[in-house]
Design brief:
Layout (H helix, E strand, L loop, with lengths): L1 E2 L8 H8 L9 E4 H6 L2 E3 L6 E10 L8 E12 L3 E3 L6
Parallel strand pairs: 1-2
Antiparallel strand pairs: 2-5, 3-6, 4-5
């Protein structure tokens, strides 16, 4: 399972979550809602994505030092087959 834009492979628990989608989709490519919009695609009405997690380092606002802490960042991805091209209205 890969990100459609970055071509990076999903690993760890994220790969396990996306492995459940293997029976539903023939494409191994996933992308976020914003990534879909960036390539002129939209998520089809009624589709549900897969919630994944990435660990990121952020500034600790509670501490008075310049300490950085790790926090989970959640995001939802959709298989490329769950998207469709955005049609431009002919004017």
């Amino acid at each position: 399972m890969y990100n459609y834009i970055t071509k990076q492979e999903y690993t760890g628990g994220n790969a396990d979550i996306l492995a459940t989608a293997e029976e539903e989709f023939t494409s191994p490519y996933f992308l976020t809602y914003r990534q879909a919009l960036s390539i002129n695609r939209a998520v089809k009405r009624g589709e549900h994505g897969y919630r994944l997690c990435r660990v990121v380092k952020v500034q600790d606002n509670k501490s008075k030092t310049d300490r950085r802490v790790t926090r989970p960042k959640y995001f939802t991805v959709f298989n490329i087959e769950q998207t469709e091209e955005i049609k431009k209205d002919a004017a």
